[in-house]
Amino acid sequence: METQLIIYNTLSRTKELFKPLVEGKVGLYVCGPTVYSDSHLGHARPNITFDLLYRYLLHLGYKVRYVRNITDVGHLENEAEESGEDKISKKARLEQIEPMEVVQKYMNTFHRNMSQLNILPPTIEPRATGHIIEQQQMADAILKKGYAYEVNGSVYFDVEKYNQRYHYGKLSGRHLDEIRSNTRKLEGQDEKRNPFDFALWKKASPEHIMRWPSKWGEGFPGWHIECSVMSTKYLGEVFDIHGGGMDLTFPHHECEIAQSVAIQGKDAVRYWMHNNMITINGQKMARSLGNFITLDELFSGNHSLLEKAYDPMAVRFFILQAHYRSTIDFSNEAIRASEKGLERLLASGKLLESLPVSKESTVDVKGLKEKCLAALNDDLNSPVAISHLFDGVKMINSINTGNEKIKDTDLEELKSFFSLMVFDILGLKQEKSNDADEKQLLSGIIDLILNLRLEAKNRKDWAMADKIREQLNSLGIEVKDLKDGFEWKIR
After folding, report:
1. Distances from the Cα of 273 to the Cαs of 30, 71, 83, 124, in angstroms?
2. Which residues neighbour 327 within 8 Å (Cβ) at sequence distance 6 or greater?
3. Can 20-275 and 279-425 be said to share one CATH topology?
């Protein structure tokens, strides 16, 4: 299969012509979520980016095996936290539930949010807890190769020894001397030979909830090893594309490379792709800054920074209007502009059904198609492809007003291509015309019910007030009492 798809390979720092390992087939692995909290705006970026890639590869005719993992294991997400408590266990302790209840709750939320954003499910979605034995086997294999060491029931990767033969840091462009100077030894890391060594298997402290038996004692896997295990298990020891956010380049993906090379003497991944970050009003998103917006809050409008609720398709279109390797700044003004652009695009699609047909064409449908696809072939340049689509919108409007003409065969080609680009490749959906009215009606009904609950509380009819709250909660509506009233959100 001959294609002209060019992608930017983070490893080579250049755009490269994409040639899959096996003709007609593509192996794609993308790092999925750690399910310990609600999915947030930052999660939308990588999932929309690689959904676009997945959709475009399918359009090109490839058979794609798309693997996206779920991190549901009680590991520690970075070496600085090694003496701390993992996030899933911490959440379980705070909510007084089992760790797997935490996992299930937030995995359900993640899947619901991805569906709302019209993100296609992967072909395989492995969970880290289902691959503990394989992670132990990989750690043991690295030990036998001499690139790891065991101490006090923990197994660490020996970065210094690995770097004597291979380059640790080649993906992120770092060198070991630089890493050494920027890494400090933390309390509880005395057993490591070097502070930058990372855990393949970690001995569980007595209070650590998620733990498994191993030849080294009870413990849990390191963060990086799960992706090395699951990607190669389902895609082979060498596969085509590994994707994720830029924040994962170091140390996570760097460590993945080291683990694979240590075992097989060669890289597992041929093309590394990384999306850039989303900022909010020019700032990095962080809970401490008060600008941390979950996807449920974004879709319901229940956040102090939001002027209103935003439709998932407006959010998707907003993200697609920036190139995946560029930063994108979220603001109410920016997403409102995306809403208007999306409305124009979808309205022109409806207009296609009633355009007048002529005996000749004065518009270049073929040229429009070539420009849009050329943009996507150029490292998934969705903003340029969308700008060409808006040239198509002008074309449609001009035909409708009689300033341009189109013959029936060109009109059918334009209809087909518009549907392909907007719905199949960009993954947008046509909103129902009454969606906004339905949302407004639902909001009014919930407010009415909660005002009745407030009246019940004022009458000290606590039983009725509790009953209303419990029934709303069972329907997925969370209610929070405030000093001067209440607030609610749909889970």
Report:
1. 9, 20, 32, 19
2. 276, 277, 278, 279
3. no
Among candidate residues 142, 136, 110, 133, the one with its CA nearest the CA of residue 37: 110
Distance CA 166, CA 156 (A): 17
pTM of the model: 0.86
- How many Cα atoms occupy the beta-carbon half-sphere of 221 within 13 Å? 24
CATH number for the domain formed by residue range(s) 279-425: 1.10.730
Backbone angles phi, psi at 109, to 5 degrees: -65, -45
pLDDT at 353 over 60: yes
Per-residue pLDDT at 270 exceeds 70:
yes
Handedness of CA 53, 235, 145, 148 (dihedral sign): positive
Task: Show me where the domains of the chain are located.
Answer: 20-275, 279-425, 435-490
153: number of CA atoms within 13 Å, CB side?
A: 12
For 452-489, the pLDDT digits (tens) are 888 888 888 888 888 888 888 877 788 888 766 777 87
Q: What confidence score (pLDDT) does residue 455 get?
A: 82
Report whether CATH 3.40.50.620 matches the domain 20-275: yes
